[in-house]
């Protein structure tokens, strides 16, 4: 199943991206302006804007923001929604022809129904022929008058059924009883016979099949939103609808038609004059006008369209009338005066019952049978000053128009009286009230529907008193809706149920009774990507943790992701279950030049990783090695201070992060290669920095390939290709430096230097299995990428925070003057005697950790803290959130170094409230070097100069806005002017 999801998601994504680009291009076109609307997301478009089972209400709310004509992207379908009578009139009357096609739901393509259905055929000759047959032979005034006795008989059956229930005290399911009446009414009009019996189980199959067609057709269908999925019918809706169509067409309808043909064959006298007889006669006379297929499909349309709409509207009318006894009393009074109490109403009586007509109109205003009139444009069209592109779906929100406060006073109140002196009708001429549509696509059965509604409602009110079943007071009856092809009541008037389809990720949540951590529900395809939209996903995840708890689960695309935001859970994962969580999710960018196969950062915890870590811990980051090359770092710090000194003399501002980056770069290059690689006074440093910054920026960007693994092969955003180029530039530099050293070693028998490169080359010579040339080059790449940007951004944050609070700077300078002496260079050995400086560094790492997340992965199913973490899940330990947890830190958003003054808490991975460098076996090996360097650089800057922000910015006004990436840099680089002491 997982492979199916990945394949479907991948294919869909490819199509979607192209379509989304096309949508954006249209939206931003120079002269063609789409109607306004919310910005669509990639993949799903605006589907998230109508999440839930009441899309008509969601679209009405959006119309209040974006206006009466708005555009959305429903998956891959451009959709224009119309929510005012004026725009509806423009589209359905003035430009009716341009908007006369209909979007065909994928379910309707079952059994090729769309090729025969008068509902969905394009407005061309075949459609006109079928409409003519309907209008002339079924729904004309003459035909309705001729078949009135049939409807009258069915109405008497309906009242007879209710009467029997009243005698036994049994409740009547209004919607169901009306539905069965409508089925028989239509079947008598078409076939001159009943097909259901309200007292028995006969006809149950017929009812069930029609209900099933309506339910399936009304379900949200991926294939409608993403046309690429039509071929595979992912939810099986078309297949199931096809089975229901097959029963109706090839069993029930075919049987009835065959029965009639057999009788016609046996008797030359065609005595019947029902609609089937008319269609068969027409077919014999002109097979081009209508054939056997069209007859069967036309019957299907009539039963599907003419039953549920009428029965649900009658149910709404009864609910509203029962909720307001004064309306019921007024209607009954009119009926008694005009017809006589207890008398069954005939259709001719309706004209003399104006208040009853008002009730029907008010019901159709507030509860239209269908919420939307669905149209489609076959060519580019301009309407109301907006561009509507070819193949757009157009939804006229009839439900919203009927509740428009600009048209209707007190629109949410059921008031039949509003129509008392109003000549407004439902015939498609008054666009404030168009429950049956308007223009050439207006419902052909409109007259019959309104007649039946009025007759059924009047007969029910005139024949019985009514009360709700059970203890429910009539005025407490609810008016909740159930969205579908028709707007039914969510609970039947006397008995009800709801059905909502949930798909996707929840299957995992329920799997084998194993409980995933809590979290927001994922959307289809994108999962929870919409929950972390924006440029600050670490802040979005922090807000989610406040809602769902310290361990939450999300679905980022197709990747299950567990986010940990508390020190207690972090300790469980990084210490007690460290081995189970010791792998790392590898971003697709790191696959560039196969870097993941050599990188100590990304290798799995196995022999090769252990060998490389041992080399790092023994020869680079051990205390003895750091002490041995301390003089190299001291020289680079002096270069930094000298550079700032030059700027202070000229009054030039220092880009703190840039200067710290170049210092870190030379510091590392001297430790590894015994030489500088950048010159702060020339452009060489900028080129190197640009390459490293480009790697961290690209690797930190949201990447579709990380969320949808199928896209790794095509790298749709080009991130891996760009990172590969940057890797290539750095590796070329390192290759040159290594070749240079090997040449020097070849020429000289004695090895002059004892730097890291010599150690690595010696180790490789002694044991090529431990480390080879590829690993040496990649290890250098890791050291430069991981050890420069993190250090420089942390130093920048420290300087910003210290400058924003002068008392901190003064306190630090006082400590430095007392312990070291003002203006003197600081050595690493001095740091232990500078506790307040250490507090500043710790507080900076708490509130501005170099990386926001520690990234882990589980290679097997794991249980942690009572929750199930499935195999291959990505695990993010949210260091940024833990460092700002109000359960741990008092006043967590305030920079207060003093909080560490009497605290023994450290950053070495033992105190899980403060883990900026990680913990467990994956802890950053460069931690000892980073803390030494940070403290010495910060102390030297503070002890050598006073500082002020460039320009007219007051120090306390410096902002702390972040720029998200692999490292959390400051959004705007700090430029500060050093002032001589």
From TrEMBL:
Belongs to the cytochrome P450 family. GO terms for molecular function: heme binding; iron ion binding; monooxygenase activity; oxidoreductase activity, acting on paired donors, with incorporation or reduction of molecular oxygen. CDD domains: CYP76-like (cd11073). Keywords: Heme, Iron, Membrane, Metal-binding, Monooxygenase, Oxidoreductase, Transmembrane, Transmembrane helix. One of its GO terms (cellular component) is membrane. It comes from the Eukaryota. PANTHER family: CYTOCHROME P450, FAMILY 76, SUBFAMILY C, POLYPEPTIDE 5-RELATED, GERANIOL 8-HYDROXYLASE-LIKE. This is Geraniol 10-hydroxylase. Heme binds at residue 443. Its main location: membrane. It is found in: Membrane. It comes from Solanum lycopersicum. Its cofactor is heme. The chain crosses the membrane at residues 6-26.
């Amino acid at each position: 199943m997982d492979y199916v999801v990945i394949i479907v998601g991948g294919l869909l994504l490819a199509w979607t991206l192209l379509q989304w680009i096309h949508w954006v291009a249209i939206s931003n076109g120079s002269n063609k302006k789409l109607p306004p609307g919310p910005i669509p997301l990639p993949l799903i478009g605006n589907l998230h804007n109508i999440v839930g089972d009441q899309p008509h209400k969601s679209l009405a709310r959006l119309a209040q923001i974006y206006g009466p004509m708005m555009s959305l992207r429903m998956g891959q379908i451009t959709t224009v929604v119309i929510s005012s009578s004026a725009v509806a009139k423009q589209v359905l009357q003035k430009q009716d022809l341009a908007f006369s096609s209909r979007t065909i739901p994928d379910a309707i393509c079952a059994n090729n129904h769309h090729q025969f259905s008068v509902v969905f055929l394009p407005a061309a000759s075949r459609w006109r022929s079928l409409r003519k047959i309907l209008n002339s032979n079924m729904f004309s005034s003459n035909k309705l008058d001729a078949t009135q006795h049939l409807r009258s008989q069915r109405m008497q059956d309906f009242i007879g059924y209710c009467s029997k229930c009243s005698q036994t005290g049994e409740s009547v399911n209004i919607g169901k009883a009306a539905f069965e009446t409508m089925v028989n009414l239509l079947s008598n009009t078409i076939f001159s016979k009943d097909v259901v019996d309200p007292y028995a189980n006969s006809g149950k199959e017929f009812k069930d099949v029609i209900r099933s067609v309506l339910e399936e057709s009304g379900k949200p269908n991926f294939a409608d939103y993403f046309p690429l999925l039509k071929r595979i019918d992912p939810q099986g809706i078309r297949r199931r609808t096809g089975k229901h169509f097959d029963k109706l067409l090839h069993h029930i309808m075919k049987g009835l038609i065959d029965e009639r043909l057999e009788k016609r064959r046996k008797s030359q006298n065609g005595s019947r004059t029902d609609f089937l007889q008319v269609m068969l006669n027409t077919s014999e006379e002109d097979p081009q006008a209508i054939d056997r297929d069209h007859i069967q499909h036309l019957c299907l349309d009539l039963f599907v369209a003419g039953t549920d709409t009428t029965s649900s509207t009658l149910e709404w009318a009864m609910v509203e009338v029962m909720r307001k006894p004064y309306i019921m009393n007024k209607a009954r009074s009119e009926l008694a005066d005009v017809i006589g109490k207890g008398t069954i109403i005939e259709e001719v009586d309706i004209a003399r019952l104006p208040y009853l007509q008002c009730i029907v109109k008010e019901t159709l205003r507030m509860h239209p049978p269908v919420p939307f009139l669905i149209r489609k444009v076959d060519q580019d069209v301009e309407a109301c000053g907006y561009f509507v592109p070819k193949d757009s779906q157009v939804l006229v929100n009839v439900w919203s128009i009927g509740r428009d406060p600009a048209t209707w006073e007190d629109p949410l109140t059921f008031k039949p009286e509003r129509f008392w002196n109003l000549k407004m009708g439902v015939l498609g001429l008054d666009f404030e009230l168009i429950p049956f549509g308007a223009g050439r696509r207006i419902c052909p059965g409109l007259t019959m529907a309104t007649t039946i509604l009025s007759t059924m409602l009047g007969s029910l009110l005139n024949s019985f008193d009514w009360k709700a079943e059970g203890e429910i007071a009539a005025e407490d009856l609810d008016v909740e809706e159930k969205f579908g092809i028709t707007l039914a009541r969510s609970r039947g008037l006397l008995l009800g149920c709801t059905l909502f389809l949930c798909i996707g990720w929840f299957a995992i949540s329920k799997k084998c009774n194993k409980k995933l951590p809590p979290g927001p529900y994922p959307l289809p395809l994108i999962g929870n990507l919409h929950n972390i939209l924006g440029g600050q996903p670490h802040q979005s995840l922090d807000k989610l943790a406040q809602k769902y708890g310290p361990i939450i689960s999300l679905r980022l695309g197709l990747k299950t992701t567990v986010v940990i935001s508390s020190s207690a859970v972090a300790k469980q994962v990084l210490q007690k279950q460290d081995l189970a969580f010791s792998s790392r999710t590898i971003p697709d960018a790191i696959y560039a030049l196969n870097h993941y196969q050599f990188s100590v950062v990304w290798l799995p915890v196995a022999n090769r990783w252990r060998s490389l870590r041992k080399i790092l811990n023994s020869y680079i980051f051990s205390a003895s090695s750091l002490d041995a090359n301390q003089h190299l770092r001291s020289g680079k710090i002096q270069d930094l201070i000298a550079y700032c000194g030059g700027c202070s003399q000229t009054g030039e501002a220092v880009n703190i992060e840039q200067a710290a980056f170049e210092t870190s770069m030379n510091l590392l290059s001297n430790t590894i290669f015994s030489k500088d690689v950048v010159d702060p006074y020339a452009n060489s440093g900028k080129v190197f920095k640009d390459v490293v910054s480009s790697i961290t920026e690209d690797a930190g960007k949201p990447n579709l390939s990380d969320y949808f693994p199928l896209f790794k092969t095509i790298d749709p955003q080009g991130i891996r290709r760009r990172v590969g180029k940057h890797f290539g530039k750095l590796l070329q530099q390192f290759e040159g430096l290594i070749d240079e050293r090997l040449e020097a070693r070849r020429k000289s028998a004695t090895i002059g230097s004892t730097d890291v490169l010599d150690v690595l080359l010696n180790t490789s010579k002694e044991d090529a299995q431990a480390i080879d040339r590829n690993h040496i080059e990649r290890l250098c790449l890791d050291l430069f990428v991981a050890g420069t940007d993190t250090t420089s951004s942390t130093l920048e944050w420290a300087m910003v925070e210290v400058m924003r609070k002068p008392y901190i700077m003064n306190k630090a300078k006082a400590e430095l003057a007392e312990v070291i002496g003002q203006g003197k260079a600081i050595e690493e050995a001095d740091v232990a005697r500078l506790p307040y400086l250490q507090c500043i560094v710790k507080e900076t790492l708490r509130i501005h950790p170099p990386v926001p997340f520690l990234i882990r992965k589980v290679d097997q199913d794991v249980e942690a803290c009572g929750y199930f973490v499935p195999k291959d899940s990505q695990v993010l330990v949210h260091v940024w959130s833990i460092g700002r947890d109000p359960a741990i830190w008092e006043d967590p958003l305030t920079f207060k170094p003093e909080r560490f003054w009497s605290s023994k808490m450290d950053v070495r991975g033992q105190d899980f409230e403060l883990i900026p460098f990680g913990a467990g076996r994956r802890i950053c090996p460069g931690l000892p070097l980073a803390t030494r360097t940070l403290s010495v650089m910060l102390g030297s800057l503070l002890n050598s100069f006073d500082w002020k922000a460039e320009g007219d910015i007051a120090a306390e006004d410096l902002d702390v806005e972040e720029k998200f990436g692999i490292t959390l840099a400051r959004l705007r680089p700090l430029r500060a002017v050093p002032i001589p002491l």
